């Protein structure tokens, strides 16, 4: 059963989506999704887990296409709107999608590729249409979605989640974050990642809340939504909070006060998808009165850990297991997860799937953590990129980054390990500065803050850090910059 459909039907007349200045009710959404399911099915009775790739602008069309694919029995494969053609080709080919759906603005870009790959090509508003028919019964053990990993070490892998996985992920967040039909939120996140498609869009629609879409992020646009009391729940990545802080600081004292008062009225503000610098968290608390709720998750598991909705939230810590999720640390400190939220498999990669689980069935996240004094989890870093092995020490890059950000003149930074014959890896840092920073003085100060073996041996000043679509720093690119 696809629970998001059955749960949301009770809110038929309520606003589900606000997109491009228009409001759509839940009834509108259900009817449009069913109509699109008819288009997909054509003369078939069930897509039988056929993969349907779609390149659709965030908004009402995105959701009706996604829901229509599910109702027709297909697996959704959302495409990144900013990817170049070779990356799009890889995703479509690898997933074996035989149907490609696009917004009209992507028709020219994707037409030749669809023809080359032999995909049925559907352009929204152009060649839709199908006769009404009985829609298939969808068992929750069926595949529902394939999202692709970032592919920082090799080609991206397709992460297959079933409807049961999504039901577990969404229902856990509904309970933990106390979603209700009285809520309203805005989606500013890419919809080929779990953060946007599950945490924001699916949770809000499951709960009967309203979800507004802002495909082109605007600091003023977000603050307008807040001051007009059009949202009470906000989720974003650290980069967005950094931009909102900068915008707030450019305003007059009177406007700052108005914005702060409006922010205080929000019910919940969450940060995720990348480590939240403590400095950003503290500054945002001063500006908004909110101590951001940090959580931890990844494509393969949805969300696994969260700071509490009610109760103490600790800066730099990601909290406790969500309802229905079991978490443990291996001897090496790796986070391992088990539960109905955990994905089914890597698409057509049985060996990679098997290797990602322990013999007793726990998914190995590759992230290193430690337990805090309250029994919650503190992320130390990704074992492949954030744990630097130098001179026999295991060093957390995230810890060093937090210290660097406290230095006057440093706006942002990324710490990496550079291959070195003598030390194994040398600690190095790319820094974004505001004005001139004296490297010698910085190095002296760093050695006063932490042990010498943790201090960077090399610095590189850059105008900005390389990031992926979710705003997460791509450390492989940082290494290439510094070397």
From TrEMBL:
Positions of transmembrane segments: none
Pfam family, one: AMP-binding
Residue ranges occupied by any AMP-binding enzyme C-terminal domain in the UniProt entry: 399-472
Domain AMP-dependent synthetase/ligase: 7-347
The family this protein is said to belong to: Belongs to the ATP-dependent AMP-binding enzyme family.
Protein name listed in UniProt: Acyl-CoA synthetase
Organism: Aquirufa avitistagni
């Amino acid at each position: 059963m696809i629970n998001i459909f059955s749960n949301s039907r009770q809110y038929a007349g309520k606003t589900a989506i606000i997109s491009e200045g228009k409001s759509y009710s839940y009834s509108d959404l259900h009817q449009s999704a069913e109509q699109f399911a008819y288009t997909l099915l054509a003369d078939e009775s069930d897509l039988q887990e056929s993969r349907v790739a779609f390149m659709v602008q965030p908004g009402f069309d995105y959701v009706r296409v996604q829901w229509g694919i599910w109702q027709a029995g297909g697996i959704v494969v959302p495409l990144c709107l900013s990817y170049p053609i070779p990356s799009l080709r890889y995703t479509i080919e690898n997933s074996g999608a035989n149907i490609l759906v696009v917004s009209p603005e992507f028709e020219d870009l994707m037409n030749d590729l669809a023809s080359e790959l032999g995909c049925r090509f559907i352009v929204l508003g152009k060649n839709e249409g199908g006769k009404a028919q009985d829609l298939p019964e969808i068992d929750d053990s069926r595949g529902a979605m394939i999202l692709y990993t970032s592919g920082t070490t090799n080609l991206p892998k397709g992460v297959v989640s079933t409807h049961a996985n999504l039901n577990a992920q969404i229902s856990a967040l509904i309970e933990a974050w106390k979603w209700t039909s009285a809520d309203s939120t805005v989606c500013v996140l890419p919809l080929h990642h779990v953060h946007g498609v599950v945490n924001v869009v699916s949770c809000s629609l499951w709960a009967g809340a309203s979800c507004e879409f802002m495909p082109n992020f605007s600091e003023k646009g977000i603050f307008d939504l807040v001051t007009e009391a059009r949202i009470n729940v906000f989720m974003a990545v650290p980069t967005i909070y950094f931009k909102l802080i900068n915008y707030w600081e450019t305003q007059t004292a009177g406007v700052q006060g108005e914005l702060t008062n409006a922010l205080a009225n929000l019910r919940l503000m969450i940060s995720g998808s990348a480590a939240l610098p403590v400095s950003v968290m503290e500054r945002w608390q001063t500006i908004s009165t909110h101590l951001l709720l940090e959580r931890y998750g990844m494509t393969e598991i949805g969300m696994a850990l969260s700071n509490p909705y009610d109760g103490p939230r600790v800066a730099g810590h990601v909290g406790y297991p969500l309802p229905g999720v079991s978490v443990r640390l291996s001897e090496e400190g790796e986070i391992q997860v088990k539960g109905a939220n955990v994905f089914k498999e890597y698409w057509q990669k049985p060996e990679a799937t098997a290797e990602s689980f322990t013999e007793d069935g726990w998914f190995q996240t590759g992230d290193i953590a430690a337990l805090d004094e309250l029994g919650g989890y503190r992320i130390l870093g990704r074992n492949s990129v954030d744990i630097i092995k130098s001179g026999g020490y295991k060093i957390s890059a995230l810890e060093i980054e937090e210290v660097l950000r406290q230095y006057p003149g440093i706006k942002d930074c990324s710490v990496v390990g550079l291959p070195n014959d003598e030390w194994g890896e040398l600690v190095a840092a790319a820094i974004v500065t505001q004005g001139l920073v004296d490297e010698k003085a910085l190095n002296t100060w760093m050695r006063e803050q932490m042990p010498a073996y943790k201090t960077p041996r090399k610095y590189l000043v850059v105008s900005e850090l390389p990031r992926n679509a979710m705003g997460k720093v791509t450390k492989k690119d940082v290494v290439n910059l510094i070397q």
